[in-house]
């Protein structure tokens, strides 16, 4: 059984054993793709394991996001990379050189904090110049670099302002400029936009992406907001309880989630139970409670015979039978969402299923309590690992 | 966590001075109390419990036998009573003052706090002197009373227990007002409104609603007044004039004119023991309340 | 809440304010009295001030007071700054013990502290012959001014966001650089304020100075106390008023420094 982990698709399938993606996101490719390499990292706080044997490869120039719910360890992982904590075991290396023993002050890695932590006694230029002063850059080089950074974040006019006089968005940009000024090999951001309101947040996200692309800066970004992660990242690692569940491009994660948690975390998902009858070259043959059968091509997760979990997105459900998997359901609730309509449906066995569609006359007419027919195209059915914890 | 760790070295000089001029001298006091007095002040080496014996006994000049003497007990007793009296008076004056301050608008409140705190930062000697100039025989009050003919001879206010009490209250009033004020600021105003809603009159609200709910502030204020008052030196020295002695100026006397260092040291040990004894119940209560 | 308090409370508050300031005001007013009585105003005059300033003993004591206060302030402020910076990463128990030792002068009665210091220096002189003269007094003052200098500095440290120190380390600052470039500038107003408080505490001190000072080491409060042995004239008012003015000036300085810092650094809300 060979497995191309980067593209996430199966090459051959013969054994009916359940095989799942290892906890990690590593490549066997040459070192160019392993710019920031994390191997088997473990870290415990007060004897409670927070990071459990985690491995990760981040590419040069990539916008890499650590996404997960609170407490999953993403911020801790970031702090381990930055050097504010020392791992209990495992290794960290940058461009081939190991650095888990180097103190934070000497790592070519800079962090943008959630609450900015700007120096109140220095003005904007002073803040941006700080790292350069600590590195003993010559005075004129510092001045030039500060100007360059301020221009990059579009704050050139505010170079002599005091921190207390800046708005939230402006402070955020100073923090960014300050972290970028010393040309760090990796830029770390710890939920930098969570304190901003929606419109400002979207503006700053666009700014960050623009800057990152222009500079080809390697970025590790931490967030719990899946929309933010999906829109900004080249690759995302979904974390839970100190482990990486799946690591891939946003498109692949959304379309082919490996397990139930990932599927549910990255947007809305419907789950129904099925039984795996057989698995061969043409696909997996699955039987459903209402008697239907379907052939589904497996994605990131190879199922074992027996009970399987099938996932499909609300926007892929079509009214009426015939598109693929046919189901009958009772309408429990109808929700108006502006341009879309969302129907909450109950299947025969009680499973809750959501349908989301552009408002249409035939859907408008539907009332709670009615029985309607729905179907899901086979291509939009995915087998996911059932991890219901 | 990386960052400042070895900076702890910076703290050592402060410990050195504090230990050298704070901790060690205290130990020396105890040592001194167990020695014999030297001829011209200072001590003579040699273990002796004479100083402690002198706290309760004196040698009868005729028989040479130790006889019980209540002199020390009198002075220490006066110290306790005066300190207690000061505390009660400060409470009686300080609580209404603090309550009034707490109801001022925020800007005015800051000025009040400044006004109450400022006297603390001026010399206690000067402030006590100012009191002397008012209550002394040639002072303001007596002078005015004599001139207007209300009295024939100056009323002796100075060098009495009353003068010392006045001086102590004058000196320690801010120490009661500030902690009580801090506690009042944190008090939920709705408690007061609830009291008013349930037909409590103004005085009842003050004593049955407000007072019980600021107990920590009251305790802090009482401690901050009682303990320093107990060990007070300048006020009894200037306003007591040797006739209303407290433990503080008694101790100083042994190191000045009386030239009996071990006795002074023993008296100091007794005073510190008294202070610690007063502190103990509060410390225990805090431990239980946890 | 005001309308629920007894109306008498306002009167008591006003009375206590009056009580606190009346004696000082009377002292001050009568320092300008041209007569020599403390109860009869005979017109304004500066001649008691002139007498006080011409008084050699007063001038000598003033010089001593200033020298001791200056020396004690420098020493205490320097040590306090080191202590606050050194302690801020220490564990809670260590901090507790350290603060208890440094705060000893605040708990122990000042006369006991003074007596203990006297015994210490006397022993030192007896055993080693070391006597620093006025330096003895400066050291003793520094020890009991230390906790007063520490208070505003610790308060200033509490206002420093801990994340700022982490960021500085992230931006390649060594521990020494963090102290020099981040901590000291941010603590500066607290240090200034602490210095002012230490100065006032030393300047106003009587108990320690009286018991410890040898001949030629008289400080102002001790000098004024000595004047009380002789028949009193408003000259003593003038001398006291000068002392009050110095203390008041320094407390205003301390407050101004803290206020100015709050204005320039401003709130920093993300």
Strand content of chain C: under 5%
Quick one: overall form of chain B?
A: globular
Widest sheet: strand ordering of chain B: 1-2
Number of helices of chain C: 12
Q: Tally of extended strands of chain B?
A: 4
What is the percent of helical residues of chain B? 55-70%
The averaged pLDDT of chain B comes out at 85
Strand content of chain B: under 5%
Total helical elements of chain B: 13
Overall structural class of chain B, as computed from helix and strand content, comes to mainly alpha
* Mean pLDDT over all positions of chain C: 88
| Greatest interface and its participating residue counts | B-C, 98 and 96 residues
Largest sheet features of chain B: 2 strands, antiparallel
Q: What is the share of helical residues of chain C? A: over 70%
Q: Sheet bearing the most strands of chain C, described? A: none
CA radius of gyration of chain C is 23 Å
Quick summary of this structure?
Chain A is α+β, with helices and mostly antiparallel strands and 389 residues long. Chain A has helices at 74-82, 124-134, 139-152, 168-180, 198-215, 226-232, 250-255, 260-265, 361-364, and strands at residues 3-4, 9-10, 36-45, 48-58, 63-67, 89-94, 97-98, 109-112, 186-190, 218-223, 235-240, 243-248, 270-280, 283-287, 293-296, 306-312, 318-319, 325-337, 340-347, 352-358, 371-376, 382-384. Chain B has a domain at 70-259: MetI-like fold, CATH 1.10.3720.10.
